[in-house]
Structures are given as C-alpha cells and as structure tokens.
Amino acid sequence: MAEVIRNVLVVNAGSSSLKFMLFDMASERMLAKGQVERIGIGNALFTFSTEGFSEKQSPCEVPDHTAAIRLACGALTDPAKGGCLKSFSDIDAVGHRLVHGGERYSAPVRLDEAALREIEKLSPLAPLHNPGALQGIRGCEQVLPGAPHVAVFDTAFHQTMPEESYLYALPKELHERLGVRKYGFHGTSHRFVTERAAALLGKPLDQTNLVTCHLGNGSSITAVKGGKCFDTSMGMTPLAGVVMGTRSGDVDPAVAFYLMKNGYSAEDVDALFNKQAGVKALCGSSDMRDVCAACEAGDRDAQVALARLVHSYAMYVGGYVALLGRTDAIVLTGGIGENSWETRAAFLKAIAGLGVTLDEAANRATRGVEATVSGKDSAIPVLVIPTNEELMIARETFAVLTK
Ligand code: AMP
Questions:
Q1: pTM of whole model > 0.90?
Q2: What are the strands, taking DSSP E only, across 209-355?
C-alpha cells in the first residue's frame, strides 16, 4: 500500500562522516542540512543549518554512526535551532546514498534484512565507500525504527549500458566470477541533469540524447540515449575516464606493472593514481580556481594541466557524439562545470571540431545557475545545469514508497 510521505531525510554516510538534508516533498524545498565529521575518531565536528539558523559544534562526542544520526535528529527537532520537526516520527522516510549497487541494483530498493545482506556482499567492489554507508543505515535504523529506509545507488543509472559499453576485453570468467566490468558512478547526478535537460529542451525523456559531463574533484562523462545511460567514462572503479583533481583517469594499465617492477607496492600505486595524480600531479593544485588563476598569471605547468584536462573531456565527448548519432545537448554540471568559466571556455574550444561554439559573455556570467553557454550557431547546444544529488535521492526515495 502506498504510504504518505512528506518529510524525507537524505543521508550520505562514509566511514567517519555523515551528511544529511531534510526535504519537504510537497514543495521539494530543503528544510535543513548538516554534517558530522570525525565520527569515531574523537574531536568530532557537527555543522547544522536551517532557515535563519546555523551552528558549528566542536569538539563533540560522536563514537559511532548511531550517535551521529541522533545528533542530527536532535537538531532537526530542536525549536531553538529552527524547529523544522516536532518529533523524530515526523521523518517519514530516509533515503541513503550508496556508491555501489553492482549488477544487482538498477533501481533504488526499500531496505530490509535481505537487501542489507545483498548490499553487504557488494562491499568488495567499493571497499572505501559501501561499508561506511552500511554503518550509516544501521545507525539510522536504530534511531528511526519506524521510518522506511531506501537505498539509492550511484551505479544504478548506468545499468542500462549495453554489453559493448560495459564489457572489458578480458576473459569472460573475470566478469562472471569476480564482477570485473564497467559500472560507472555519479549516476544520481547524471540522472538529475538528464531529466532537467529533457524538460528544458521540451523533449520527452525517452527521445532525449545527451552527453552529460559531471566535472568536479571526481569527474565522469556519460552518453545518454533515449534518456538512458548508453556509456560512461568511469569504470569498475571511479579511477577510470577523464583526468580529475587528484585521480589520473585513463592510463595505460601497464604503467602500474612497470612501477610495481620498480619498487612500488600495489598500495603505493593505488594511492599514487587516486591521490597524487590528475591535475594536482601536473601543476601542484587540484582546485581549478587555483589552476585557472595560475594560467592567467602565465604559469606554464598550470596551462599544460588545463590543456590536458579539457583534452581528456573532449576525447570522451567526441566519442560519445559519434556513438549517439544525434546529440540534443551537451550538459555541464559539478563544481567545475557549474562554476569555472575558464575551464568551460577551454573545453568548448577543444570540441570546436564538433561545430560547438562559445557564447563568451554568457559563459563568463554563468556561475552555479542554469544557462546556455554555447553560441546561437552551435551545432550542439551546451547547457549548464547545477546538479542536486540529494534532491534526486529524496525524489527516488519518495517514488519507491509511493508507487
Ligand atoms: P565538486 O567535487 O563537484 O564539489 O567540485 C569541486 C571543484 O570545483 C573544485 O576543486 C574546484 O576546482 C571547482 N570549483 C568550485 N567552485 C568554483 C569556482 N567558483 N570557480 C572555479 N572552480 C570552482
């Protein structure tokens, strides 16, 4: 039976952090948000804000995720802090962000013991992310036992990829026995901007072809065919694809073997490719604000890093435009896509071969808002659409429970 759902709490838990946002689903308005950092480490930090109120508490005692969610719910029901809710039972549902749903989950799932056991089995695919999220779910279930809990997976949107997109050219047995294949990530963001782009273009979702570019510290580019993922740049893990802040993106895998034959351990190579690579390795900073300022000041390393970055974006966009046949729009989102006009300008110049042109003035003026940044004569319009992964999780949670 469909349930009455008004307030949805969205929870994004990691091994030592828990972020939350409360939405009123009638208006889709965000009522409050906050985060707890350093869970179980000591000297925890709690930040919370609601309309007309914000606070930072530090240090506080937060030994585990149960204590973290209790702290969050305490603030949500405290009249002195904006008083969004009267009691914990006013939270009608909880939507949990899960990084990896493997091949098992192509849609959100209402959580019960069986689903939790299934998700636990997927932890080897996302050892840094899924276990923390599971601790968050267990904590929330203790504090909010009456509310339905739903898991929304970052990988789910990409489960529509055909075999020619997701299979690696490796022995089949590795896929079947160990789950070695492309999964893709940032799916909640790609889905959000896909739905919004279709609405802005005035096209039915199932007839909308896009290249969606989520460009931030972590970045991925997705080919969307008929509203569904056709291919995406990240792989079995979020290391593959375009150049990122501290991640290498695509590198000849033999570089790893070469390093390991030259004294690097597997852990060294993992840390090197994930944390000491990308734009940071090329010019010393992973933040595009610093990189673009350094480019402007004539720093050669920063200029090469920016050129290498947009080169990698252009390679994926070009390939995906070829695969799609017809592309209705290229969509830019994420911290860089929404805010960095310099990176957008360099990116659009790198794909000029596709007939894409830049509206210099519109591009410069756009920061964190919806806009068209391509010229009127552009062969493919380029739209900036701010993402809202938390709202998408709230919507998907609502949809699962009210269908
Ligand atoms: P995200 O991971 O989506 O939060 O994106 C983070 C990245 O977005 C940062 O590292 C910056 O490089 C970039 N960014 C955020 N705000 C701005 C801004 N105002 N101007 C340029 N780049 C920005």
A1: yes
A2: 210-215, 219-225, 228-232, 329-333
